[in-house]
Amino acid sequence: MRQITDISQLKEAIKQYQSEGRSIGFVPTMGFLHEGHLTLADKARQENDTVIMSIFVNPAQFGPNEDFEAYPRDIERDAALAENAGVDILFTPDAHDMYPGERRNVTIHVERRTDVLCGRSREGHFDGVAIVLTKLFNLVQPTRAYFGLKDAQQVAVVDGLISDFFMDIELVAVDTVREEDGLAKSSRNVYLTAEERKEAPKLYRALQTSAELIQAGERDPEAVIKAAKEIIETTSGAIDYIELYSYPELEPVNEIAGKMILAVAVAFSKARLIDNIIIDIREMERI
Amino acid sequence: MRQITDISQLKEAIKQYQSEGRSIGFVPTMGFLHEGHLTLADKARQENDTVIMSIFVNPAQFGPNEDFEAYPRDIERDAALAENAGVDILFTPDAHDMYPGERRNVTIHVERRTDVLCGRSREGHFDGVAIVLTKLFNLVQPTRAYFGLKDAQQVAVVDGLISDFFMDIELVAVDTVREEDGLAKSSRNVYLTAEERKEAPKLYRALQTSAELIQAGERDPEAVIKAAKEIIETTSGAIDYIELYSYPELEPVNEIAGKMILAVAVAFSKARLIDNIIIDIREMERI
Known about the structure:
Chains A, B: Beta-alanine binds at residue 61. Chain A is of the alpha/beta class.
């Protein structure tokens, strides 16, 4: 594995891969890698000739009250994990190279898919995500880009970015990695008390229960949401949201139809957990 | 020459060129081609294996009071001219393919280089330019993109777009094509009266006089602007602006230094003419 910080060195490496006709799988991250990232790298390794992972804690996606400085960083550990996962190039650019000059000439605003779920309380967050991904996509020129469905809203925004601008990139959305009992893996799970850790799998169980209800023929969004809510209310966590939207458009749904996301956020004493399930009615009907 | 309207057909053609390792010169236009466009195509023909011209009257760059519907179109004449200029693919997409869906997911805002010169009175114009060029660049994947310096502000905005987002494109700015007497070629020149047509070359003469003054050692921006102004005031036209900025940043200059643009807009009875000159002090000093 090569670790590259210099942008022009990355460009050279990319030109070389392209001249050899090699496909490029790209895994953009903010580092402090966990099993979710490594699953993305695994998948990229299986599907492409070359795997490039970036580690860049992107200042543009942190709000003024969000802790950019305190975001955890451990580049040595990350490099070892990335190499082990079969990454060919680990791209670790400097902020002053990614955002040269005092001010931007051009900015991107994500107009849709952002004012719901976690985006509602993070104004400008997805603009920063779209800006840095546009830069990274133009530098890496990936054949495929890998994102985890744990952050399904980010996947929806990236889908909108790629399709609006006709980027020649295949977006690969990878299923959430779970513990054996169904709890979505997250670095925040360690902040759960022993009691909360026992309750936490109910989030996914709630989502599954709603999905089964739909499978059984329920077509009323209220009833579907209520079923999930009742299960989550048996935990000690406080529900931040349980919402159902079309996916990836993230528009309200009046009737259960097409492809949808059911997403929850629940605040436990020291950890706010999120989870979601993508439900495709058309696939269900086909089965 | 192939004329392609379908986006997926264009993508196929581009993939083919890329697999053959051919360089692509791209000339984006809104059609109704004149000698300026054909000069860009000529230059692209000389410098690239393949020349792609697009004709797309981009609704996003017209303001609510600007006449998108009345913008002149003559695709048959344009196709003949493009073929004659050695264009390989004439890309003429439909608006509903370039802007599918009811609303955009993502938009681009140009934050700098737009609130001066002609951009001052055309709010949102350059946002529309940046959006459509991002789409076209991603579709055509050009090695080089050609723009005329007659619209030097557009060149500055495109330069900002390409550099901010690390687009892998060489921007080629092509000198303004002029009549023998120095008047910048423009489809609007036909609206000049015979008397005005005789006066009109004074715009360029004024710009040149200022440049010569700088060459001779003048370093006060006011004096440089005044010299041009005095010459233009001998015409019957009304001065809209005479302005001096750093180029391509388009920031005010307190002292004559580096690379600058001196630009004028003058309203005659039925035609508003624009012209500009790029002055590079460093090149002058080298000579």
